[in-house]
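Minutes, structural biology subgroup

Action item carried over from last meeting: produce the structure token record for Gap junction protein (Hemiprocne comata). EB confirmed the sequence was re-checked against the source entry. Recorded below for completeness.
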Amino acid sequence: MDWKTLQALLSGVNKYSTAFGRIWLSVVFVFRVLVYVVAAERVWGDEQKDFDCNTRQPGCTNVCFDFFFPVSHIRLWALQLIFVTCPSLLVIMHVTYREDREKKNREKNGENCPKLYSNTGKKHGGLWWTYLLSLFFKLIIEILFLYLLHKMWDSFDLPRLVKCSNVEPCPNTVDCYIARPTEKRVFTYFMVGASSICIILTVCEIFYLIFKRVVRSTQRWRKSIKRSVSYSKASTCQCHLKTEEKDDKSQTRCVA
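Output recorded by EB:
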């Protein structure tokens, strides 16, 4: 897997991300991708070869391994990292779409034409909704993969000994031993902890975006109220002036 290409694509998201988004991206690449590439792949490299069972029945070891490890930790984490980083590409695609529209507008109406967007990377309008939607996608994916990991291996635990029973072609109950169980357990807890931190950061970013949007809407609402009040006062003053002018003219006529 070419993680450098993925990192190059996602590095552009930093320009449009909030502070929480930048921290999230750092946690993903430092504590998850880097640990995955440097250490985790090597730890799980011998998982099937060193899965040892106390029987020589042909096919029993492979069947027991498939029974207890329907999906490998390392491949599940690879899928998780790919799926959890893909929603960020929606933001880049939306910004690229805005830039393309801006370019076509200049080509059609000239360089001095009014801009369609004050800033193509500013999170307002449709881009704000795209960014928020990408956060919800990331949150759902993180929770879903943690649930799958917990469901397949109870409480993210890796026991030293597993008992394979009632699984053909294994005879009776077969004891099987996992290679490097303690080391794998440590890495599993580490990856689960890093994923939990990413979930917390994503939730914080969602609340931050919504709070910031509410504050801006409230400020605009207050400004519109002030403008309407000032406009009504100005119109009332003009009405008073006109009334006073009419009264002065009528008094002048009466004196004449």
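Discussion: Strands lie at 52-53, 161-165, 173-177.
Next step: EB to file the record with the rest of the batch.
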